[in-house]
Amino acid sequence: MHAWPASEVPALPGKGRDLRIHDTATGGRITLDPGPVARIYVCGITPYDATHMGHAATYNAFDLVQRVWLDTKRQVHYVQNVTDVDDPLLERAVRDGEDWTELAERETALFREDMTALRMLPPRHYIGAVEAIPGIVPLVERLRDAGAAYELDGDVYFSVESDPHFGEVSGLDADAMRLLSAERGGDPERPGKKNPLDPMLWMAAREGEPSWDGATLGPGRPGWHIECVAIALDHLGMGFDVQGGGSDLAFPHHEMGASHAHALTGEHPFARAYVHAGMVGLNGEKMSKSKGNLVFVSALRRDDVDPAAIRLALLSHHYRSDWEWTAQVLADAVERLARWRAAVSRPDGLPADALVEEVREALADDLDTPAALAAVDRWAAAQTADGGTDEGAPGLVSRTVDALLGVAL
Predict the structure, then answer these.
(1) In sequence order, which residues have a C-beta less than 8 Å from that of residue 39 and are 6 or more positions away?
(2) Counted domains in the chain
């Protein structure tokens, strides 16, 4: 599966700072110090409702991680999946009377278009669940043969008790896990499971649903968590730098995925940091598929909203905060974009070397985009009021905003 084209990232003078970021597993900030190649895995969409503002906010956060690393003169090995077969996708296809593969292909294509418009840097590897199945099956067989998985009426479940580190990613107790499991695709009430929290690794073929050759597992399709584990291990290996996604993925998805990887490899940790973006709401409620209150990037683009303004609207909120999309949020972003563009359109301006360092420091401090935007706001206001004589300043500000924030002025 191919990703989307990459926008050029301008080179800035000097060198950026190492990223200090909040790690869900430890509950505090850690300083990431990758080697020459930083490794990141971000969980992708289930392609049936692309691209809503919650998606955009999440991928914006991890685009910023890449940009901070690139500014430290590192390379970035970024991997993202597409869950192009799963219950929600199949249910939507049935509801709409559409072939599930056509639905997945159309929504994935739309997602690529939106990511391109928003100047999100693409992953090096963009892998669909379906194409990963040949690599998933042997992992499930290994877990079963090692006693870390078991069969139940033809399905194969992972035993969470096989991983002594289970629970360390989310830090939740068993009762909270059980509630979230029921809400987020698990089946804690199914009779016969060794532990209500045990997640499915391989679903035996169901009538009327797609299935694939599972070798000794029999025909079926993979569970959600093992999909990402197989792709991450194949392309990044254990101990990669950041596992990322929305905050609703901390449990069960990232918790279960880490346990799968621990049991498969005997190594710990799966990722050095677990980083999660907040949720986006609308009209006082969490923006979600079930509520039908989604704001789509493509709809805004069709209304001739500049993608740079959409990105500024996302950047105006700290990535870990839960926030609400409103018409005013967008209007403020449109106005800010106009002010910035006017400020950099002058032939000369106020010196901007200090601004570059302010933006770098803000982003290195747990991706503090509100602080970064405020720094540019101050420069733009002073530039508008007084101006300056530094001929290189407007260009340097434009390159800084593009390279570090992904906004083209």
Answers:
(1) 76, 77, 79, 236, 237, 240, 241, 242
(2) 2
Q: Which residues of 233-272 are buried (b: 16+ CB within 10 A; e: fewer)?
A: bebbebebbbbbbbebbbbbbbbbbbbbbbbbeeeebbbb
Regarding whether 318 and 179 lie in a shared domain, the answer is no
Q: What DSSP designation does 341 have?
A: H
d(CA 195, CA 214): 24
At residue 288, the pLDDT reads 60
The per-type count for the chain, helices as H runs and strands as E runs, is: 13, 14
Alpha-carbon gap, residue 53 to 277, rounded angstroms? 12
CATH code for the domain in which residue 265 is found:
3.40.50.620
The domain of 158 spans: 20-277
Helices (H), 160-210: 174-183
Cis peptide before 123 (omega within 30 of 0): no
Same domain, 272 and 312: no
CB 270 within 8 A of CB 301: no
Whether 375 and 247 share a structural domain = no
169 and 30 assigned to the same domain:
yes
Q: How far apart are CA 18 and CA 26, in angstroms?
A: 19
Helix H or strand E segment including 307: helix 307-315
* pLDDT tens profile 126-169: 999 999 999 999 999 999 999 999 999 999 999 999 999 999 99
Q: Concatenate the DSSP letters of all residues of 60-85 into one string.
A: HHHHHHHHHHHHTT-EEEEEEEE--S
For residue 33, is it within any domain? yes
Give the whole-angstrom CA distance, residue 283 versus residue 352: 39
* pLDDT one-digit tens code per residue, 336-366: 999 999 999 999 999 999 999 999 999 999 9
- The percentage of the chain sitting over the pLDDT mark of 90, rounded to a whole number, equals 95
The neighbour count for residue 151, using CB atoms within 10 Å, is: 15
Write the pLDDT tens digit of every residue in 230-261. Answer: 999 999 999 999 999 999 999 999 999 999 99
Q: Is the peptide bond before 122 cis (omega within 30 degrees of 0)?
A: no
Give a yes or no: residue 355 inside a domain: yes
Q: How confident is the model at residue 293 (pLDDT cuts 50, 70, 90)?
A: confident
Distances, alpha carbon 354 to alpha carbons 16, 82, 344, 358, 397, in Å: 13, 40, 16, 6, 10
